[in-house]
Design goal:
Distance between the termini: 43 Å
CATH architecture: Ribbon
CATH class: Mainly Beta
Number of strands: 4
Largest sheet: 2 strands, antiparallel
Strand content: 25-35%
Length: about 70
């Protein structure tokens, strides 16, 4: 699928449709890791918990278990 590069403030971006975001498991505000290799742009979803310590992860799990 071809996309156009658009101006966003002083930067540039490529728009991603809601269907494409759903297919990638992404949404507005999510973080992606962007890499350029041999002229190819790659974007990888980054887990919101990727840099979270184990005690903090346990706290998140316990909080989710106690929700009504």
């Amino acid at each position: 699928m071809r996309k156009k590069v658009v101006t966003i403030g002083n930067s540039a971006g490529i728009t991603i449709s809601p269907a494409e975001l759903r297919a990638l498991g992404l949404g507005p505000g999510d973080t992606v890791e962007v890499t350029v290799r041999a002229g190819v742009l790659e974007a990888r979803a980054v887990s919101r918990y990727e840099d979270t310590s184990l005690p903090d992860l346990i706290a998140v799990i316990n909080a989710a278990r106690t929700r009504p």
